[in-house]
Amino acid sequence: MGIEGELATLRGARVVLLPVPHDATTSFHAGARRAPEAICEASRHIEEYDEELEREIWRCGIHVAEQVLVPSGDASALVEAVRTRVSELLASSKMVITLGGDHTVAVGAARAHAERHPGLSVLQIDAHGDLRDSYQGSPYSHACVARRLLEVADLVQVGTRSVSAEGAGLLRRMGREPFWARRIASCGDGSWMEEVVSRLGPSVYVTFDVDGLDPSIMPATGTPEPGGLGWWQTLNLLRLVARRRRVVGADLCELLPTEGLHSCDVLAARLVYKMIGYFLDP
């Protein structure tokens, strides 16, 4: 947002944005490592006043932390580095929103929040089930994120429309079912949102893969899938969750900055800004 002064410092801010420019596990189009920088740059060009919340959200204080980097590109080392850094920030009573990078960055961030908030629920907005135990030789591939999240938290998946046979089998064995995108599309009254909230515990972490959005509004992502969430559906869900539950942290991942699609960078920046406003004061 181009914030200067005390509200941009770690001491003066209530919210910390943690950039993690990592996309070593990308399996289709790479480039998500450029997303944190693109989001921060786009944020300089969005209006500070939010007409829905009727306030300038940035006045809560927003600090952009130093990037988390693992030179080797080792996904397991990256997960641990993110977990450590997020844990440090949470100990300072900050709300942390991690900016990926590919979705693997969510694993370390969610682990840190689960350690601090026993009984944590994770709301995963994502086109993909991400339930493989291993993919391309790594248990920390972006295709394994939900499987790793299930090891530390309860999980509610929204907007899903692509799942592996392995993931589908796991869901059947666990007696779980995502909020499939096809169901959301056929439900005109928004009652599905109330059901989402009912499945979440008191403390919630939100992991947001931008491919959960429909590619008509978010084409700039490495693994797009047709039939995703719309902008207003997304905001209505996030605000309802924030009103009914305590959202303790979040991440935004998988933006692929693309020449000619700067609107997607702006959408991601606006979404992060909305999340801050909702989660701090819905």
Would you mind describing this structure in some detail?
36% of the residues lie in helices and 17% in strands. By secondary structure, it is of the alpha/beta class. The chain has a single domain, classed as Ureohydrolase domain (Arginase, Chain A, 3-Layer(aba) Sandwich), CATH 3.40.800. The strands form 2 sheets. It has an 8-stranded parallel beta sheet, with helices on both faces. The longest helix is centred in the C-terminal third of the chain and has 19 residues. The two termini are 20 Å apart.
* Record field, number of beta strands: 10
Number of domains: 1
| Class by SSE composition | alpha/beta
CA distance, first residue to last residue: 20 Å
The gross shape turns out to be globular
Estimate the strand proportion: 15-25%
Uncertain regions spanning at least 5 consecutive residues:
none
Oligomer: single chain
CATH class: Alpha Beta
Q: What percentage of residues falls in helices of 4 or more residues? A: 25-40%
How many strands, what sense, and barrel or not for the largest sheet? Answer: 8 strands, parallel
CATH level-two architecture: 3-Layer(aba) Sandwich
Order of helices and strands: EHEEEHEHEHEHEHHEHEH
Physical arrangement of strands within the biggest beta sheet: 4-1-5-10-9-6-7-8
CATH topology: Arginase, Chain A
Radius of gyration: 17 Å
User: Average pLDDT value?
Assistant: 94
Say which CATH homologous superfamily is assigned: Ureohydrolase domain
Number of helices, where a helix is a run of at least 4 consecutive DSSP H or I residues: 9
